[in-house]
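In response to reviewer comment 3 from the previous cycle, which asked for concrete evidence that the modeling workflow produces usable outputs, we include below a single protein chain processed end to end. The sequence was submitted unchanged, and the resulting structure tokens are shown without manual editing.
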Amino acid sequence: MLKGIAASAGVATAKAYKLVSPVVVIEKKTDVNAADEVAKLESALAKTITDIEGVKERAAKRLAPEELEVFDAHLMMANDPELVGQMKAMIENDGVNAEYAADQVSNMMVSMFEAMDNPYFKERAADVKDVTYRLKCNLLGLTIPDLSAIDEPTIIVAHDLTPSDTAQLNEFVKGFVTEIGGKTSHSAIMANSLEIPAVVGTGGVLAEVNTGDVIGMDALDGEVFINPDEATIARLAEKEKAYKEEKAALKTLINAKSITTDDHEVELAGNIGSVKDAEQVVANGGEGVGLFRTEFLYMDNDHFPTEEEQFEVYKAVLETLKGKKVVVRTLDIGGDKKLSYFEFPEEMNPFLGYRAIRLCLNRTDIFKTQLRALCRASVYGKLCIMFPMIATINEFKAAKSLFEECKAELLAEGVAVSDDIQVGMMVEIPAAAVLADEFSKYADFFSIGTNDLIQYSMAADRMSQKVSYLYQPYNPAILRLVNMTIQGAHKNGKWVGMCGAMAGEPYAVPILLGLGLDEFSMSATQILKARKVVNGLSYAEMQELAKKCLSMDTAEEVLDYVKSQVD
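The workflow returned the following structure tokens.
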């Protein structure tokens, strides 16, 4: 048995298909004709483009339009005059062969992306590798395996799966196991979309597996069994059956209320980054969107998105939710979220620097474009706008004033704007939590961003492995800040949501319920599980449980106590 990361839930047993991609060996040659090498490069590029178009066409049978966008990005990359121009320049200036030029330029680009702090841009390195690997194979006349030809129940085992590989998976592929990767890699995202089990980051699996071996994979606990015995196969079959039954049972809760055994109702919403995500929230019984991360509109672009471009997306999300509340977070870039077309100042600690609302209040041109688009879209649903990274009341007032300014401008232009837009703020800085009762005089609602609230409260970078033990959502200090925020809001009749990872954790839900949290926002796939938890709890009992948790000393003590009460 090997241990990995459960990236897409499920259990499966099938024969292994060991994906062995052609080994690309590049030799540097200098006794070449530059014109011939440029022609060879152009021919290989043309074939690469045709190949990607073919993969996209096959993938369109199983993937949604938004998921096919990765291939549009690949086609853009293959047609990128900068990328191709650098390869041609190396051939002509250095007198080298096309394969060597392609390899050198692609390695340089991959290194550049991998060196970036932002996880999103780091993962773009995989796109460069995918496209340029295909190009190098075409230059060398090597054939890439065709996974779409698999015609029997199979579990794919690979070092990694490229977006092109994953898009070719058909109904015979029951799951896949990779040596590298994480929960946010392309392959993991696509596996979730295709609803097939995936265990990634399974070190050493390629050395242990041969094509034809039987693989048992438990993508609930991240375990991979190679040639399992009869007892293990039977146990996995039972677990697979139980998982499917639980999944079916949870679907019966899609239209149910999120209500406790003693009739206290809360709202379970979803976190989204796109229209496709919004559709998933609706499909999973979400009662609204508690966090629309608009930064992806900016990060997936090569320019600041225009008012019209943003308006179309916001309108589509609001229409998808059909009158249910949609909380849109205004632009939250900086820290680890960079833009390729905007230069941030060099800072010792960018997480505590020029980012989020601080950038928006400085660059009001960028901010007002977004606010105008939001105001215009507001007539298509129930819109709530929230500002990230608010530290002072003056910041909130300044941001709200710009919102009012944009609204007034549009109305003066004869553009319809809803008169029922709630304007609130993220509580992710401890100062805002401490002063919540004062902030709630001005803000219509709060949404607690626990990921940042925890790292700022504990003075521990959540991306640092060395101090990862300090990421403690159950620490009584964090719970007290959450409690302070909720009490401060309720004092002035305002509602409070939570959109950090903590909101969807099964053992956090009872505490948050007891503290009086009004809205829990999480990934779409967590909603029904959370509803099942809420529906089985007593609000009165959870209030007592939360009170005890606030008086405890350690996160471990809190977690052990909650488990003893609700398991």
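DSSP finds 23 helices and 16 strands in the chain. We consider this sufficient to address the reviewer's concern, and the full set will be provided in the supplementary archive.
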